[in-house]
Design brief:
Elements lengths: L5 E7 L3 E10 L2 E11 L14 H17 L8 E5 L1 H5 L3 H12 L3 E3 L2 H14 L7 E7 L4 E7 L2 E8 L3 H8 L7 H15 L13 E5 L1 H12 L7 E3 H14 L12 H4 L2 H14 L4 E4 L4 H13 L5 H12 L4 H18 L5 H13 L11 H10 L8 H13 L14 H16 L12 E5 L2 E5 L4 H4 L1 H13 L6 E5 L2
Parallel strand pairs: 1-4, 4-5, 6-9, 9-11, 13-14
Antiparallel strand pairs: 1-2, 2-3, 6-7, 7-8, 10-11, 12-13
Helix pairs in contact: 1-3, 4-11, 5-10, 6-10, 7-10, 8-10, 13-14, 13-17, 14-16, 14-17, 15-16, 17-19
Length: 493
């Protein structure tokens, strides 16, 4: 990436939406602009986990304002990441479709574990490099992420359904700040977080960092009141803040220097969760980190730019090994599919080819479960796994290619409206047919082309008689594309 390139990351959190714009200079990203709006989508979920119309509109309005600032940004230089509220919302597709249109860029819903990985990247990139073992805690609106890491490597990640907005809504919904409410909130938080005790025990880390949201807000309040020795959050500081909130008795009566208005309504829930984390993990002091999810997303853009630094490639390799996929055949199918795709699309983004290669390497991932309908098992695995580096929609698309590489094509009717997907799928299916004997196919004189929505396959004279089974499979392939918007013609003299 060239020095001076501007990058942007949008964090669609449960409490706030944030836009971070940075400039790439010699391997680092320097902040150019930071915008934050309190949207509080997390409080807009009803009992059936649907986002209210008002909550969605607040989000769209915010994204429209962000879009004006990002009007001239190329797609490859923007990453929008959505977290727990949009993971939970049953009608998230409604918000995401309209939100992506308003923003002008796709919105990635990431899993809790992927959110944790990005948070750690953001924290680590803004810390001095050292060999210290780090515990990173990020208390968001509806989830809390815990990460153990060293340098730029996250070694253990976890995400829990407890956060400042959720706990404030549940235990301080009337705005009253009572000792009973704090006690109930802390006990409930510990009940959810206690499964982290073994992995995140104090002997596993040297120093604790609090990222973003609650940690930042509490840190600001304690610093303003001279309750933050060496700029840290301590147990004494948390006790002092709890006492001040109890004295206020209600959210409306809180008078604390350093407390921003957008944090007032959720400070009770956030403090309860933070105190629970301190007690469970025996934290004596916590440093407030400068980095967060949005910085991690910015650096992830850099990593995705090159195949050798794209974490997703390593994740695919891990899945190949975990599910005992035949690596030679997987690479053979992937290479053949990419070769065919290049014939079909002379101008294509490298990222599209990379995703096709991943699908080729994973097309037999379901065989570990059963050889019967293994393509369906493979799709299920990919759509329901926590794969480092991947957003949920990326795993869905990868799963669709794996599902579609075998059987009738019309089961993917909606996906076939995307021309790029159709080209990827055709390339993968032809590659699987050509590699059926589990050896390198003879592609000398073999050609594929496309005109409109019609694919054409041709081979040199005599190819069909030399490879009769391959020729049979290709002719059968024409039937698989019937009753779809696409056609396949095969000419094998």
């Amino acid at each position: 990436m060239q020095n001076g390139t501007h990058l942007a990351a949008i964090d669609l959190g449960s409490n706030s939406f944030r836009l971070e714009i940075g400039r790439y200079e010699f391997g680092r990203i320097q902040r150019v602009e930071y915008l934050k709006e309190t949207v509080r989508q997390g409080s807009g979920l009803d009992e059936e986990h649907n986002l209210s119309a008002q909550a969605m509109q607040r989000g769209w309005d915010c994204l429209a304002r962000f879009a004006e600032r990002l009007a001239n940004f190329p797609r490859a230089q923007v990453r929008a990441v959505a977290t727990q509220t949009l993971r939970e919302a049953r009608n998230s597709n409604v918000f995401l479709q309209r939100g992506s249109e308003v923003l002008g860029h796709p919105i990635d819903v990431v899993s809790g574990l992927e959110e944790a990985r990005l948070i750690y990247q953001g924290v680590a990139r803004l810390l001095p490099q050292s060999a210290e073992r780090r515990l990173v805690v990020d208390i968001g609106g509806r989830s809390t992420e815990l990460i153990l890491g060293q340098r730029f490597s996250a070694q253990a990640v976890a995400s829990f359904h407890v956060g400042s907005v959720a706990w404030s809504t549940r235990y301080f919904n009337d705005g009253q700040l009572t000792a009973a409410a704090f006690a109930a909130a802390e006990i409930a938080a510990k009940a959810i977080l206690d499964q982290a005790l073994e992995t995140y025990h104090p002997h596993c880390w040297d120093i604790a960092y609090g990222s973003s949201g609650t940690a930042g807000a509490v840190g600001d309040i304690l610093a303003a009141a001279d309750q933050s020795p060496n700029g840290t959050i301590t147990r004494n500081g948390l006790d002092w803040l709890r006492e001040r909130l109890l004295r206020a008795q209600s959210v409306d009566r809180i008078r604390l220097e350093g407390l921003k208005d957008d944090r007032r309504a959720v400070i009770g829930g956030g403090l309860s969760v933070l105190r629970a984390v301190f007690d469970l993990l025996d934290i004596q002091e916590m440093h407030v980190a400068q980095g967060a999810l949005r910085q991690g997303a910015l650096y992830d853009l850099l990593d995705r730019e090159q195949p050798e630094t794209d974490l997703r490639t390593a994740t695919v390799q891990g899945l190949v090994q975990s599910f005992a996929v035949d690596p030679s055949h997987a690479d053979r199918v992937a290479g053949t599919a990419c070769s065919l795709f290049i014939q079909l699309s002379a101008t294509h983004p490298e990222s599209v080819l990379r995703k096709l290669k991943w699908a080729g390497r994973l097309h037999e991932i379901g065989c570990r479960i059963s050889h019967s309908d293994y393509h369906r098992h493979g799709a299920y695995i990919l759509e329901n796994t926590d794969a480092a580096g991947f957003a949920k929609h990326e795993l869905y698309r990868l799963g669709s290619l794996v599902l579609g590489h075998k059987g009738k094509v019309r089961k993917l009717q909606a996906d076939l409206e995307d021309t790029t997907f159709a080209l990827q799928l055709m390339s993968l299916r032809l590659a699987v047919a050509l590699c059926h004997a589990r050896r390198e196919p003879d592609l000398d004189g073999f050609a594929v082309s496309i005109k409109g929505q019609r694919f054409h396959v041709a081979a040199r004279p005599g190819w069909a008689s030399t490879y009769p089974q391959s020729a049979h499979l290709l002719r059968e392939e024409t039937l698989a594309w019937q009753r779809t918007p696409w056609e396949l013609e095969v000419h094998l003299p």
